[in-house]
Design brief:
- This protein is globular.
- It is built from 5 helices and 23 strands.
- The strands form 5 sheets. Strands 3-2-4-5-12-11-10-7-8 form a 9-stranded mixed beta sheet. A 6-stranded antiparallel beta sheet has the order 1-14-15-23-19-20, with no helix packed on it. The chain has a 4-stranded antiparallel beta sheet with strand order 13-18-22-21, with no helix packed on it.
- By secondary structure, it is an alpha+beta fold.
- The two termini are 24 Å apart.
Length: 330
Amino acid sequence: MAAKEPWCVAAKPVVQIGIVSVAAQNHISGNGIHPSDEGAMQMLLETQHQFDILDLEADFLRYKLLILPDSVTILPATGKRLNAFMKKGGCLILSHESGLNPERENFVFPQMGIKYLGKDEYCPNYFRVKAKIADRIADMPHIMYEGSSKVKMLEGTEILGTVMHSYFNRSYRHFSSHFQTPVEKATKFPAVTGRGQVIYISSPIFRAYKLHGYIVYRQLIENLIDLLLPEKLVRAEVPSTCQVTVMQQKNRRIVHLLNYIPERRADGLDIIEDIIPLYNLKVSIYTGGRSPTKVYLAPESIPVEFEPEGEYVSCLIPRLDGHGMLVLEG
């Protein structure tokens, strides 16, 4: 730690995305964890996005994209601040009941281009996405374990995915041997909508990811972020277990890479015992086209070859043992 300290003192995080916390809105006590917040955080960590967790008093204008996960209802004061954020060019991703007024009667932002109709009567239900947001997602119906909201699209809104219903809800009257009943048909209700800088997902996708871990949910959110925020701060060809954090000091940018894999070896306790090295990691850092004077691994000061790639600088890290710092100076 002492050897790494010079690259940590007075370093500030570089972020693009803010997650507006459900826990902060609802003043949840104790450890303050809400499954929707945790699911959103987990998705962004696993896809190497740079983000903050925000309360309702945070400065929204610092961010390019805000995510309102699942159940962030909007009071007038918050609505005013979010409207100012959108007028400055900021983008929004909202899901399920986020964006509704506190009475959960209708959405408060006309920019969403949808009308709230209530909860879908089928749970679980299914969704299928359009080609525009289907990167790495199989062309087939995908289950949404937590159901969804039912919304109506208004003129000028683009449908990016469709809700699909099963044959019936599983009950003592209608039995299926599996938890989910097979899909029957597509509906007229959207699963994902887009209108300018605002994207809406009708399901509580962040809570569902925390509870069920279905990788398609994460891939969908990653595709939506890419649609709104194409200039990702760091593009790293690393496994989803590798967390990437970008920090800034006066004259240098530091990219932390952390890859320790916990294993559930005891009841309620995750243990990290082994360091599993990663090799030949390509990491591209957004610099706006500016080329650094020096790139190296700290604290060993091992030089790293780099080359410009458009707005990015691309580097190859030969080996990562648990934790490493890639430093760009100049």
